Automatic annotation (TrEMBL):
InterPro entries, per the entry: Glyco_trans_1 (IPR001296), Glyco_trans_4-like_N (IPR028098), Glycosyltransferase_grp1 (IPR050194)
Domain of life the protein comes from: Bacteria
Gene3D superfamilies per UniProt: Glycogen Phosphorylase B
Source organism: Chitinophaga oryzae
Chain ranges of the Glycosyltransferase subfamily 4-like N-terminal domain: 17-205
This protein's name: WcaI family glycosyltransferase
A Pfam family that the UniProt record links to this protein: Glyco_trans_4_4
Domain Glycosyl transferase family: 218-385
Any GO molecular function: hexosyltransferase activity
UniProt xrefs under CDD domains: GT4_WbuB-like
């Protein structure tokens, strides 16, 4: 009989980016490889921070969806249009409350062999531990983002007492999980510092057949409405506080004397309007804001760019492994990455020569890095990036390893 897997996660398909994308692809892979999968999640809202159609009409009640051997229970939650520390706490609390109701309903209905929770939100692990205590399933606690440390270091939560309480709850989850995993060596080291147990490497992946290098970048640029001689500096992804994208606007201002250099900010998020207002105030004629690109043309869109920006604040160095980097590597893109020496991301990029590294929150370094990426020979980096993705980041290789370790 097929093993039964329950995923409890606040983000899931059809969210196009971030944790929701990876949760959806993970469950699809497991279902396609013989597992009977159930998901407790919420309605898709990220990265727009608003529940998306057609779910916006039913977002206040529970909904069941069935597709083959995947059953999805969508639970209502509060979604703040402009997230802050307090609002994020309320959002997470609203989801864990509704997810708790659904877990209780499922406890008596069927027996799962494996319960996977993906942090953030970190305290979903408590629901997995509860299920384990009552029904005996193995618990996999997977960390995509060190949420507590990020909230503390980015001053999203300033209460030391609250941070301490959250860390104690996390310790309870870590002690009771059968397997703990994370996406990068640097994050694994930080989790290992909290617990004496083994932490598995379960990296984010990329579809290396869907995302691959294309030739004739000039034609691609013209296809998206640019000149063949334009130089495209692209940021594509979530637009939030931890990215520090104000620095990109200042960099664009310094390059205005080169009209052929175009800065593209593509994506959604709560800070996009603020950035658009800043760009207007700075009278930036070389900065263009675009929505998330349709999936069917995203490979072409990424291949068009001369430089891909992977920007985050220094506090986030080993707290977040940028999910956008995997896709950039797959297309053989030249990634300009803010990562300080000593972090896992810095070590990975340096050791494999798969990007250009600059210090986080260093405006001069950012501007110099853009110039280096645009004008120097980066063919080796592009080739190394694609080779690394093919060798280490294909979904088949990553999920097969995960299955052998925990499932």
């Amino acid at each position: 009989m097929a093993k039964r897997v329950l995923l409890i996660g606040g983000n899931f398909s059809p969210e196009p980016t971030g944790i929701g994308k990876y949760n959806g692809e993970m469950i699809s892979w497991l279902a396609n490889n013989g597992y009977d999968c159930t998901v407790i999640t919420t309605y898709p809202y990220y990265p727009q921070w608003a529940v998306q159609p057609p779910y916006d009409r039913i977002k206040k009640r529970f909904k069941k969806e069935v597709a083959g051997n995947i059953t999805i229970y969508r639970c209502p939650q509060y979604v703040p249009a402009t997230p802050s520390g307090k609002k994020r706490i309320l959002q997470d609390a609203s989801f864990i409350a509704s997810a708790f109701i659904k877990v209780l309903q499922l406890i008596g209905a069927r027996k799962f062999d494996i319960v996977i929770t993906v942090a953030p939100p970190f305290h979903l692990g408590l629901l997995a531990v509860l299920y384990k205590k009552l029904r005996g399933a193995a618990v996999v606690y997977h960390v995509q983002d060190l949420q507590i440390e990020a909230a503390r270091d980015l001053a999203m939560i300033r209460s030391k007492r609250l941070i301490s309480m959250m860390l104690k709850l996390e310790q309870l989850i870590l002690r009771n999980a059968d397997h703990v995993s994370s996406i990068a060596d640097g994050m694994i080291r930080k989790i290992s510092d909290k617990t004496s147990r083994e932490v598995l490497l379960f990296p984010n992946w990329v579809d290396i057949t869907k995302f691959h290098p294309l030739t004739d970048r000039a034609a691609l640029k013209e296809g998206f409405g640019f000149s063949a001689t334009d130089k495209i500096v692209l940021y594509s992804g979530a637009i939030g506080e931890k990215q520090g994208l104000e620095s990109l606007l200042h960099a664009a201002a310094t390059w205005q004397h080169h009209p052929e250099i175009k800065f593209l900010i593509c994506g959604s998020g709560p800070y996009k309007v603020k950035l658009e207002q800043m760009a207007a105030q700075m009278q930036l004629k070389n900065t263009i804001f675009l929505p998330l690109q349709p999936a069917e043309q995203f490979n072409r869109f990424l291949n068009m760019a001369d430089v891909h920006l992977v920007i985050q604040k220094s506090h986030a160095s080993d707290l977040v492994m940028p999910s956008k980097l995997t896709t950039i590597l797959a297309v053989g893109g030249i990634a300009l990455i803010t990562a300080n020496a000593g972090t896992g991301l810095h070590e990975l990029v340096r050791s494999h020569n798969i990007g250009i590294l600059i210090d986080a929150e260093n405006q001069e370094a950012l501007q110099a890095g853009i110039g280096k990426a645009l004008w120097e020979n980066t063919a080796d980096i592009a080739r190394n990036a694609r080779d690394y993705a093919a060798a280490h980041l294909s979904i088949s290789a990553v999920m097969t390893r995960f299955k052998e370790q925990v499932a």
